[in-house]
Write a structure and sequence with these properties.
alpha/beta, four-stranded parallel beta sheet, TIM Barrel
């Protein structure tokens, strides 16, 4: 059996902490009451896992609140890169939303620079791994107008640091807020600026959103699993061959029924699937576990290796890095 868990394209910084680190940092920054035990904190993180997604997404407020200073963003990123390297990953794209880290005076550019710097330090200390940073625009408030200017600033600072640690942009958050189509001009602005774009779509109940994402000419789709709601949506995904950032454990964490997840159908139908963990802490998983769970369902090593190859081709890195990753995968499979 080969180690096919080498590439991670969909990984949120604020959902992938070392829990003990997050607890200690939360106490230090006054994010939780000083009398809170580690067990208390653990319960805070996971108590609303059984609630609807629209409610449980607020758990990210708890983690974002300890990432409001340059040193904390840099340290959290460095720690994540180190852990990914220890797991044997060759390449990962870490995403976060710079506009979520301005509560104590940071600008979006300063927040993005902190994460870029943390990733750079991680790569210096762990030369076996390469990292790219994706900055997220956000669905917030009742509609796209709520944080339109913040999203434009996200695009601007990402463009400024593109090729200097930043590799792309995402649209994240609660995708059912307002009319999904209203975010199209923001995606166009990012694309016109030459920024690679991925977009959360078709995760939270509305499969038709994948059609909107395709019409915006995004480079990848985050999740996209609700394209199975209608054959029209699935056929559009298959015809486009767009890479899907599938995150199985993250989507089934409330039921843990991996067999009911759309990934099996997507693989059977020949979709361009990449496998990812989404939020290592909140989903209590990592990329190796994602591959393990699918092996348990009968997915072959060859198919898992193809998902890794798909991820290499879909990555927002330069061609030199892609060729290095292709070569390493070839050596892995031939060994």
């Amino acid at each position: 059996m080969h180690n096919t868990a080498r590439i991670e394209l969909h990984l949120h910084l604020d959902g992938s902490f070392n829990i003990r680190w997050a607890y200690e940092k939360s106490l230090k920054r006054g994010v939780i009451p000083p009398e809170s035990s580690f067990v208390d904190y653990y319960n805070m993180l996971f108590e609303n896992n059984a609630k609807p997604h629209a409610q449980s997404i607020t758990k990210f407020d708890l983690t974002c609140n300890i990432l409001q200073l340059y040193e904390d963003l840099e340290e959290a990123t460095y720690d994540l890169v180190s852990r990914l390297a220890d797991m044997g990953l060759w390449y990962a794209e870490i995403r976060f939303a710079s506009q979520q880290h301005m509560k104590q005076g940071l600008t979006q550019k300063e927040a993005l620079q902190a994460v870029v710097d943390g990733a750079a330090r991680g790569m210096r200390d762990c030369p076996s791994i390469r990292i790219g940073i994706i900055n997220c625009m956000m669905h917030k408030g009742e509609n796209a107008a709520f944080n339109w200017e913040e999203n434009l600033e996200t695009i601007r600072v990402t463009k400024e640091l593109l090729g200097k640690g930043a590799v792309g942009i995402d649209l994240a958050g609660f995708e059912n807020n307002g009319d999904f189509k209203d975010y199209g001009p923001l995606i166009k602005t990012a694309k016109d600026a030459g920024i690679p774009v991925t977009c959360h779509a078709g995760e939270m109940g509305v499969g038709e959103h994948v059609l909107d994402a395709l019409s915006w000419n995004v480079d990848r789709i985050g999740h996209g699993v609700n394209c199975l709601q209608k054959e029209e949506y699935l056929n559009a995904i298959l015809d486009s061959h767009i890479p899907l950032e599938v995150c199985v454990s993250s989507n089934v964490k409330r039921t843990m029924n991996y067999a009911e997840h759309a990934v099996l159908t997507l693989l059977e139908r020949g979709a361009n699937v990449t496998l990812n963990s989404d939020n290592m802490m909140f989903a209590r998983t990592n990329i190796a576990n994602e591959h393990y769970q699918l092996r348990m369902l009968g997915v072959t090593d060859d198919t898992l290796a193809q998902c890794t190859a798909n991820a290499i081709e879909a990555a927002f890195c330069d061609e030199e890095t892609k060729q290095m990753l292709r070569d390493r995968l070839k050596q892995e499979l031939e060994s």
